Every structure is written in structure tokens, then in C-alpha cells.
């Protein structure tokens, strides 16, 4: 017989191919007649394999497409995006701040040190890679923009290619802001895990309360700190979002030398918790809530 390649994966002779097909078909019919349950299990297994191979091929194509787009952007001297405001000095000592919405972006733009802080605004909550297919995640424009801004694609991780040495997430200091923070963290952990493991991800805290007394303002970053304050005088402003802070307040509360910025330290426990609380396992979250929530504090 003549084969199509050195691996002998396909016969060139048409008559031999026909005999082979007939022999396989007869064997499968005999197998189905003698053991229909076994035949069905085998058919289901083949269907799963075919589905998995198709999904893997789609993922490969999505990665190639995303990498091509990211590499094209990173080679350009200037990014053509109104959502990204680059730092003047890029490199290991610069930080990319990721926030949600244009109002936060504009306020941060006036408050930041333009030399070392870049800004990237997301239109809404980031897509969750734990509950979405990889190809859908990589088709997301904001995902590509984050990776491009960092100078990373989905190939082998190379820290020397980083446009920013750190990424800081600036989200509102409430439950919704915490969700925004976790979604971005999950995205980074799934797509560029080495970046997270190297301790390059931070959370940039913003004040939850501002207490003004004359020309003096005091900033409180948690409910506990606010309740435990010793000086109860002054006008209290509850900050519900980054956009409510003036650029001066942002500069003093978020970019001063004593800024509240928390490094995210990767661990196996963190990895497990992210997958449990942000993944597809709804039952685990239900059990956790019912076992840990104090429903007596829930108000109508």
C-alpha cells in the first residue's frame, strides 16, 4: 500500500481505503449488536474527545489572534486608546493603575504623578475567565488592552518585556468595588499567573470617609477606622465612589508618601479560594453564605 506520509496515518490507494472503511463499519455493527451499552459508551467517549479537540483548536486560534493583536500594539510607540493614559517613564519602576469608568480615570489623571503612574479605565466589570471560555475572554477588547499595556502576550512569560513593573487596582471601597477588584485579580491570575506570583499586583486603597474641619481633612479607609476615630468634629462625607473625590483629595489620600497600597501575595490557598468563590461552583458559595452569614443583621 501507498501511504500519505511517513507516519502512515492515511492510505493513498482508493481501493484499500474502501476495504478498510468496510471492515471498520462491519466491526462496529457487530460490536453494537453484541454489546449495545458498551457501544454507546464508546460513542459518547468519541464525541467528548471530538468536542474537546474542537474546543482546544478554538482556544489555540484565539491565543494566536490575541497575541498577534497584542504584539502589534506593544510595538507601536503610542497606544490608540482613550482608555489608556501611559506614564511618561515606562519600565520596572512604573505602575499601571486600573480603575472602572471615565470619572475615576479623569480624577486619577489629575492627581497622579505622570512620570511613574499610567492609567487604564475599564468600561465595567471585567470578564470572568473562570466561568467563560478562553476564546470569549481573549476576544474581549479590555482584556487585550490590559495585556498590551503591560507588554505581555500569552506566550512564555518574560518580565523583561514589561512596560509596567506593577499593576495597582483602584476600585471603590464597597462590596461592588471588591467584586471589581476580584474580577481583575482572577483575570491576571488565569492569564499571566507569573506576574501575580512575582508580587506585582497591588490594591490602591481610596478613602471611604472624608472628615473636613476648616482647611484640614482626615481620611478614613475602613468603617472600623471611622467608627473608632477620637475626634468626632467636622463635616463627614461618605465617599461612595472614586469619582466623588476631587483631584486634590485623591492626590493627598492615594498618592502621598503614606499611600494605602496593599501587595497581593500569591499562595496556593489564594488560588483555591479564588476558584471557589469566583468559579462555577455555586453550591460551595451557597454553603459558605449559609454557614457564615449573620442573617440577624440583614435589614428589610
Structure notes:
The protein is an alpha/beta fold and 300 residues long. The protein has 3 domains: 14-54; 56-206 and 247-282, Rossmann fold (3-Layer(aba) Sandwich), CATH 3.40.50.670; 209-240. The chain is 48% helix and 15% strand. It has 11 helices and 9 strands. It has helices spanning 14-34, 36-75, 102-111, 134-139, 141-150, 175-191, 193-197, 223-227, 247-254, 268-278, 282-292; strands at residues 84-85, 91-100, 117-122, 164-169, 201-204, 209-213, 216-220, 235-238, 261-263. It has a 6-stranded mixed beta sheet with strand order 1-3-2-4-5-9, with helices on both faces. Strands 7-6-8 form a 3-stranded antiparallel beta sheet. Helix 1 (14-34) packs across helix 2 (36-75), helix 3 crosses helix 9 and helix 6 (175-191) packs across helix 10 (268-278). The mean pLDDT is 86.
Residue windows where pLDDT falls under 50 for at least 5 positions: none
The best one-word shape is elongated
Biggest beta-sheet profile:
6 strands, mixed
Cα-atom radius of gyration:
27 Å
CATH C-level class of the largest domain = Alpha Beta
Strand order of the largest sheet: 1-3-2-4-5-9
The computed structural class is alpha/beta
SSE succession: HHEEHEHHEHHEEEHEHEHH
